[in-house]
Specification:
The chain is of the alpha+beta class. It has five helices and seven strands; from the N terminus they run E-H-H-H-E-E-E-H-E-H-E-E. The protein has a seven-stranded mixed beta sheet, with helices on both faces. This is GNAT family N-acetyltransferase.
């Protein structure tokens, strides 16, 4: 990652632009995962500007924007307010809820730096572990998370519209301070 990369919290005034980025990156990564109707329903429910404004204001959610030379490259979210799966035993824990980069920024090392930023933020807030879910049919994403120290500990169901998807629950213990 070069010196033109900035990682910063999202601002409430950026909710509409963040919603656009979220929709675009989800479609690029997962647009093929279900019917167009289910994907559209999911996007409307999860990635609306109103929902993003709410999440940005939520004290239990940290939404980060990644900029490369002033251009939005991606985003990520940590959520302390979600109930972790029972397989995640090391508590307190935080959900690494989202991490996406625009395709033009893949392969540049930005995601690895973003993950390290997220895990540092989790530790600063007292989390002893981080957890996430990843679609079982996303081998590249599974490899990425394993490379960054996450281990599969269980399964969960994630809905795209009304279409259930099998996900892995993955977790990582955070080093003690």
């Amino acid at each position: 990652m070069n010196s033109g990369t900035t990682i910063r919290p999202a601002r409430p005034s950026e909710a509409a632009a963040l919603s656009d980025l979220m929709r675009r990156t989800f479609l690029a990564a997962n647009g093929h995962c279900s019917t167009p109707e289910n994907v559209a329903a999911f996007l409307d429910e999860v990635y609306s500007p109103e929902r993003q404004a709410q999440e940005i204001r939520d004290p239990d959610t940290l939404t980060l924007i990644v900029e490369q030379d002033g251009v939005w490259a991606g985003y990520a979210q940590l959520r302390w307010g979600t109930v972790p799966p029972t397989e995640v035993v090391l508590r307190p824990t935080v959900e690494l809820a989202r991490i996406y980069l625009d395709e033009a920024f893949h392969g540049k090392g930005i995601a690895a730096v973003l993950v390290s930023h997220l895990l540092a933020a989790a530790k600063l807030r007292g989390s002893r572990s981080a957890w996430l879910t990843v679609w079982q049919e996303a081998p590249q994403a599974i490899r990425f998370w394993r490379k960054h120290g996450f281990q599969s500990v269980g399964r969960s169901i994630f809905y795209v519209g009304d279409d259930p998807k099998e996900d892995w629950v993955m977790t990582q213990a955070l080093p003690s301070a």
